[in-house]
Amino acid sequence: MVFENIITEVKGKVGIITLNRPKALNALNSALISELNAALNAYEADPNIGAIILTGNEKAFAAGADIREMKDKTFDEVTSKNFLHDWDHINTITKPIIAAVSGFALGGGFEYALLSDIIIASETAKFSLPETTIGVIPGLGGTQRLAQAIGKSKAMEMILTGRMIDSSEAERAGIVARVVPTEKLQEEALVLATKIASLSQPVIKAAKKAVLSAYEMPMAQGAVNERTLFHSMFKLHDQKEGMAAFLEKRPPKFENR
Ligand code: DAK
C-alpha cells in the first residue's frame, strides 16, 4: 500500500507505523487517520505480524488533531456526520500496540498513545491535553483514559489547564511504562515488540483482552472474563507446547494455534 501521511515497515514479526506529517508536527487529519486505519487493518489481518509499533519522529509523536481542518466546522456538520467517528478504530485491533513517543504527544496525539497498549517514551517526550486552551475539550477518550491512568486530581489539573508534562513526570504518574534515551527509542520499542511477537499470538491476544476488560467492566465481571479466557487457553497447541517445553528445559516453539 502507498501512503502519503504515514510510513509502514515490517521488521521481523513487528509492523511499524510512523506518522509522517513532520511540517505540521504530525497533526492528525482525516487523510492520515484513514491511512492509519488501513495500515492497522493490514497488520491485524497479517498472520506474520505479532505486534504493532505506532510512532512519530523525534520532535513529535503527534501535536493533536489538525486544528486547520476543525476550525470552521459547524455544530450541524460535526453532529450530522458524527465528525471524527472513525478515529477510535484502533480499539478494534486485537494485536498489541506499542506507542513509542518522542517529542510532543498532545491532544488527539496523546489520546492515541493512551489508546495504545503500552507507551514507551523518550527523555524528550511531552504530554498534554491542551484542548481547553483552544476552546474545546478532549474528544477521543482522553478525559476517561487519563483519569483512569493517573487519578482525578492530576487529570483534572492537566485537562483544566492544558499543562504539559515531561517524560519523567509521565513515568512517575504511571502514564508510560518506561523512559529511554531519545536515540534508543525505536530500538527499545522494537526489542519490546519483538519479545511480545515471539510469544503465541492467541495467548497474547487473550492477555490483552483480559487486561482491557479491567477498563471496560466491573471487577467481578472482569475476573470472570479472565477465568473464561484462561480456561480457553487449554484448547491451544501452544499451551501444551509452552508447558512441555518448560518441563523439558528447552525453548518453546509456538505455532499460534
Ligand atoms: N494542528 C494543525 N497544525 C499544527 C498543529 C495542530 N494540532 N500543531 C502544530 N501545527 C503546525 C503549526 O501550525 C506550524 O505550522 P506552520 O505555521 O509552520 O504552517 C507547525 O505545525 C509547527 O508548529 P509551531 O510553529 O507551533 O511549533 P512550536 O515548536 O512553536 O510549537 C507546539 C509546538 C506543539 C507547542 C504548538 O505547535 C502547539 O501548541 N500545537 C497545537 C497543539 C494543540 O492544541 N493540540 C490539540 C488539538 S485539538 C476526536 C478525536 C480527536 C480530537 C477530538 C475529537 N473525536 C474522535 C471526536 C482531538 C482534538 C485535538 O487534538
Written overview of the protein:
With 257 residues, the protein is α/β, with parallel strands linked by helices. It contains eleven helices and ten strands. Helix 5 crosses helix 6 and helix 9 packs antiparallel against helix 10. The radius of gyration is 19 Å and the shape is globular. The chain starts with 5 loop residues before the first strand and ends in a 10-residue tail after the last helix. The site of 4-(N,N-dimethylamino)cinnamoyl-COA has 20 residues, from helix 2 and strand 6.
Task: Give the key terms.
257 residues; alpha/beta; 4-stranded mixed beta sheet; binds 4-(N,N-dimethylamino)cinnamoyl-COA
The largest sheet has its strands arranged as: 1-2-3-5-7-10
Q: Total number of β-strand segments?
A: 10
Whole-angstrom Rg: 19 Å
Helix content: 40-55%
N-to-C order of helices and strands: EEHEEHHEEHEEHHEHEHHHH
Concise summary:
The chain is an alpha/beta fold and 257 residues long. The chain has helices at 30-45, 67-70, 75-80, 108-115, 142-150, 152-161, 167-172, 185-197, 201-216, 219-232, 237-247; strands at residues 6-11, 14-19, 51-55, 60-62, 97-101, 104-106, 118-122, 126-128, 165-166, 178-180. A hairpin with a 2-residue loop joins strand 1 (6-11) and strand 2.
Per-chain topology:
Elements: E1 6-11, E2 14-19, H1 30-45, E3 51-55, E4 60-62, H2 67-70, H3 75-80, E5 97-101, E6 104-106, H4 108-115, E7 118-122, E8 126-128, H5 142-150, H6 152-161, E9 165-166, H7 167-172, E10 178-180, H8 185-197, H9 201-216, H10 219-232, H11 237-247
Parallel strand pairs: 2-3, 3-5, 4-6, 5-7, 6-8, 7-10
Antiparallel strand pairs: 1-2, 8-9
Helix pairs in contact: 5-6, 9-10
The structure holds 4-(N,N-dimethylamino)cinnamoyl-COA.
